[in-house]
Every structure is written in structure tokens, then in C-alpha cells.
């Protein structure tokens, strides 16, 4: 088919000076050019019950992640850092404190930490956000270079799309270009997207372990789900075409409904204990622009792009061809696997958010060995200890499938159980049990853990954890 032009002046990266707009979370930049190329479940915010809390107390004594083998960060350590305002301190002081926890950081976080450590020697008095803003231009350029080859591959695939789908793809790429260039763009409003982002803010808040804030967030989620309940899954009125969505969204009755719903939620939010929460305020600002069809600054979001691309390609009869698009889009870098993506993502965030996310991925969390969505129970025998990031990645993936693609899990499960045996023999299990009113931790947990791991590991090669030292 003959390919019409797509506005992708984002690459062959000649990045000019990047300046802040008046809004602290927005960037403006000189145009970039590209060399020619072929073209939700409700969250409760209450943590894990039935023994989860007592198990997490072991992390204060040093426990390795059952999947990565890295040491797990005690949640109370991160909580104290936040309460004491550590991340608002000069960079030199922050680096000095968190250097004690280098061994809990995931590889990308550790690389970012090393960059900040080096930066602190030159600018010891800068804040975290100031340091990230200085690092932004260089890493934005590097990130665009990495993204360039992947977008070019996606565009080559798009040349074989049917005409109607190609037009939708073209519109998606033009919007993507504006987002990558930090240009204002008009985006459609989605109730499901709003609820998803609100829920993610709530998940991030769990690290602070502030009961009042968590309770307030839970109430906001309940209210939001009652108010924004028109955008049902599978609803065809909005289709998958972005232009069509915007046209329908601007119809008087729908515009009035969305505006009224947003105003109702804002009214409740304004009297909430969370009314000064920067993340929610930012979400409401961007949502207001979407509802009313106003252009606004919106940074590129990998997950959103993949979601929109899938909505276009899922109508293809050739499923193998559709899968090629998905595979290519998944190669776009994320803040979990690319240093530049991490720096770009958090460069416009608050000091607290940057510092928290530097350490959060390695923070101790309760992992359901058999995911709740797969029928796993909330009880000690089904719990293991893993970092927040791996726990999120694993979600409802079956343990045996995870082990097949991550064979290092075998030795790291043994590493964790060896440490648990040491803590049991040192009397730590008894110590944490005395401080718990409802639950006790004893050697039966280690036995149950070993049995569960054996039962759910790959049939062709069971994981037989050695717990003989428990009985010596």
C-alpha cells in the first residue's frame, strides 16, 4: 500500500537546551528531527493479613529476595526516611544515608544511585529533584536514541496494515510524537484510565504506611468507582479510533456528564485529608484537560502506547502479524530496565517520590506463592518474601512458569530458606512472635514454605529445598 506521511520529527537526536515551563511537571524543547525511515480490582490499602505482617518483621534482620537473591529493605527503614524528611535534604546527606542499603537496590536503581553519587561529589548541596533535572537533557537524548529503532520497526510493520487501521495507527503515532517532544496534545478521556491511575497512586502511598492517608485513599477510590462508572469494559461507543473517541466525547450530553462527574469528585477531594497530594492534583489537572478537549502537556507513557496499539492490531485476522507489533512495542525501554528511562520518568517528580522510587523496588513485600487471582489463600503457608518490583512483575503468573523463565529462582529460594533457618535458630522467630498478638512464627513456616515451593515448581524439575539444617 502507499504510505502517507506520519509526523515523527523526534529522532536523529539533536536535542537542544531543555527548559522548564512554569508548571513544575512540564518540559518544552526545541523541535527534534528524525532521519527518514520506512514507515481493575479494588485496592484496600490495608496490607496482607493472616500472618503477612509478622513475616515482614523478619526483614529487619536481613533476608534475601526469594527471586533475585538481593537483600530486602525493611519497610520501616523507608518509612523512617520519609518521616524524617531525608529526601528533602542535600544530595550529599541522602547518598551517605542510603549507601547502607546499596545491596537492596535492583540493578537499574543501583545504576541511577551510582550516577547520583557521582553527581553529589560535584554538587553536594543540590536536592534530588535539582540533580535529576540537570541529568534530564542528556538522558532524554539517550532514551530517544533507544526508542528510535523500536518505533522505526513498528512503522515498518505498519506499512502492511489495512488502510483503515493504518489511519488509526498514523493518528496514534502523531500523538506519540507530540508526547515525546513534550508538545501540548489533545487526548481522549477514559474513566477506566482515571481509576487505574488513581489506584496506582494509592499503591505508591502504601510505602508511607500512614493509616489515615491509606484510609482516605480507600474512601476516594470507593467514591471514584461510584462516580466514574459509565466507561464499561467492551463499550463500543468510543471504539478504538482516537479521533472518533474525541468526536463522541465532545457531544454535549457526554461532555456534560464527564464534566459533572469530575466536578463531583473534585468537590469530595477538596475536603479530603489528601487534598494537598501532588500526584492526585496532577491527575485531576490532566483529566480536566482530557474531559474538555483542551491541549495539555502529557509525557510519553509506554504502557498507554502499548494499550492503544493493541486496540488497533487486535482486529487483524493475521494474529501472528498482530503479535509482531506487540513484541516490538514491548521492547520499548522502561524505568525498570533502562537508566535513562528512570531519570526521564522521575526528573519532574518531588524529592520524596524520587527518593522513594530509588529504594522502593527492593523493599520487602509479601508474595503470594500461588497468586490470589489463581486461587491462592491468604495464609502463611502460601507466603514468601520478595521485593516490591518483582512482586508486581510476577502478579498472577504461575510459579512454575516464572521458574522456567527465571531459573535463578531455584538457588535464591534456597538462599532465603537458609537465612530463615539461621534466624529461627537465633531466636528471631520467637522474638517477633512475642510482639504479635494474633500470630506466631515457628519452624513449621519453613517446612510449609519448602513443601509449597516443591508442589508448585515445574513438574519436570521440582525444587527440593534443603532444610536439613533446621533439625541439626
Lay out the secondary structure.
Layout: E1 19-20, E2 27-28, H1 52-56, H2 75-83, H3 91-98, H4 107-122, H5 128-158, H6 163-180, H7 191-205, H8 211-227, H9 242-249, H10 252-269, H11 278-292, H12 302-313, H13 319-329, H14 339-346, H15 351-360, E3 364-368, E4 383-387, H16 388-394, H17 399-405, H18 409-425, H19 428-434, H20 443-456
Helix-strand category: mainly alpha
Morphology call: globular
Overall mean pLDDT: 86
Number of strand segments: 4
User: Helix proportion of residues, in percent?
Assistant: 40-55%
Euclidean distance between termini CA atoms? 73 Å
Strand order of the main beta sheet, please? 1-2
Number of helices: 20
In percent, how much strand structure appears in the residues? under 5%
* Uncertain runs: 1-5, 10-47, 234-239
Radius of gyration: 24 Å
Report the major sheet. Answer: 2 strands, antiparallel
Helix and strand pattern: EEHHHHHHHHHHHHHHHEEHHHHH
Compact description:
The chain has 472 residues and is mostly helical.
Write up this protein.
- With 472 residues, the protein is mostly helical.
- The chain has a domain at 52-79 and 361-471.
- The chain has 20 helices and four strands.
- The model is unreliable at 1-5, 10-47 and 234-239 (pLDDT under 50).
Amino acid at each position: 500500500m502507499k504510505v502517507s506521511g506520519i509526523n515523527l520529527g523526534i529522532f536523529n537526536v539533536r536535542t537542544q537546551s531543555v527548559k522548564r515551563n512554569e508548571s513544575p511537571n512540564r518540559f518544552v524543547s526545541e523541535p527534534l528531527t528524525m532521519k527518514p525511515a520506512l514507515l481493575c480490582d479494588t485496592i484496600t490499602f490495608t496490607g496482607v493479613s493472616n500472618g503477612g505482617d509478622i513475616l515482614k518483621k523478619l526483614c529487619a534482620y536481613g533476608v534475601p529476595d526469594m527471586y533475585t537473591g538481593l537483600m530486602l529493605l525493611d519497610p520501616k527503614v523507608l518509612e523512617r526516611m520519609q518521616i524524617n524528611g531525608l529526601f528533602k535534604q542535600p544530595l550529599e546527606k541522602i547518598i551517605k544515608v542510603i549507601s547502607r542499603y546499596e545491596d537492596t537496590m535492583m540493578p537499574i536503581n543501583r545504576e541511577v544511585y551510582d550516577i547520583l553519587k557521582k553527581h553529589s561529589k560535584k554538587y553536594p548541596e543540590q536536592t534530588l529533584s535539582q540533580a535529576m533535572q540537570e541529568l534530564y537533557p542528556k538522558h532524554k537524548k539517550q532514551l530517544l536514541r533507544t526508542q528510535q529503532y523500536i518505533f522505526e520497526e513498528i512503522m515498518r510493520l505498519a506499512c502492511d496494515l489495512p488502510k483503515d487501521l493504518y489511519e488509526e495507527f498514523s493518528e496514534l503515532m502523531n500523538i506519540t510524537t507530540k508526547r515525546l517532544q513534550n508538545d501540548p496534545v489533545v487526548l481522549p478521556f477514559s474513566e477506566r484510565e482515571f481509576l487505574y491511575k488513581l489506584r496506582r497512586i494509592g499503591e505508591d502511598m502504601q510505602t508511607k504506611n500512614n493509616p489515615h492517608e491509606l484510609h482516605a485513599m480507600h474512601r476516594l477510590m470507593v467514591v471514584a468507582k461510584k462516580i466514574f462508572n459509565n466507561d464499561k469494559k467492551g463499550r463500543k461507543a468510543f471504539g478504538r479510533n482516537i479521533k472518533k473517541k474525541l468526536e463522541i466525547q465532545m457531544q454535549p450530553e457526554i461532555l456534560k456528564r464527564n464534566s459533572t462527574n469530575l466536578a463531583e469528585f473534585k468537590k469530595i477531594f477538596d475536603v479530603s485529608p489528601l487534598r494537598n497530594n501532588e500526584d492526585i492534583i496532577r491527575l485531576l489537572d490532566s483529566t480536566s484537560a482530557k474531559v474538555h478537549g483542551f491541549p495539555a502537556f502529557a509525557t510519553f507513557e509506554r504502557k498507554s502506547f502499548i494499550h492503544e496499539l493493541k486496540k488497533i492490531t487486535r482486529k487483524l485476522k493475521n494474529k501472528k502479524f498482530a503479535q509482531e507489533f506487540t513484541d516490538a512495542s514491548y521492547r520499548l525501554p522502561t524505568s525498570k530496565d533502562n537508566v535513562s528511562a528512570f531519570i526521564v520518568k522521575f526528573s519532574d517528580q518531588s524529592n520524596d517520590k524520587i527518593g522513594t522510587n530509588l529504594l522502593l523496588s527492593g523493599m520487602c513485600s509479601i508474595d503470594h506463592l500461588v497468586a490470589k487471582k489463581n486461587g491462592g489463600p491468604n495464609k502463611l503457608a502460601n507466603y514468601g518474601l520478595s521485593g516490591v518490583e518483582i512482586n508486581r512483575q510476577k502478579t498472577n503468573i504461575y510459579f512454575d512458569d516464572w521458574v522456567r523463565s527465571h531459573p535463578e529462582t531455584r538457588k535464591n529460594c534456597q538462599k532465603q530458606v537458609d537465612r530463615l533457618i539461621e534466624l529461627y535458630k537465633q531466636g528471631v522467630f520467637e522474638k517477633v512472635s512475642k510482639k504479635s498478638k494474633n500470630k506466631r512464627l515457628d519452624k513449621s513456616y519453613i517446612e510449609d514454605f519448602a513443601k509449597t515451593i516443591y508442589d508448585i515448581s515445574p513438574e519436570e524439575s521440582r525444587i527440593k529445598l534443603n532444610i536439613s539444617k533446621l533439625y541439626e
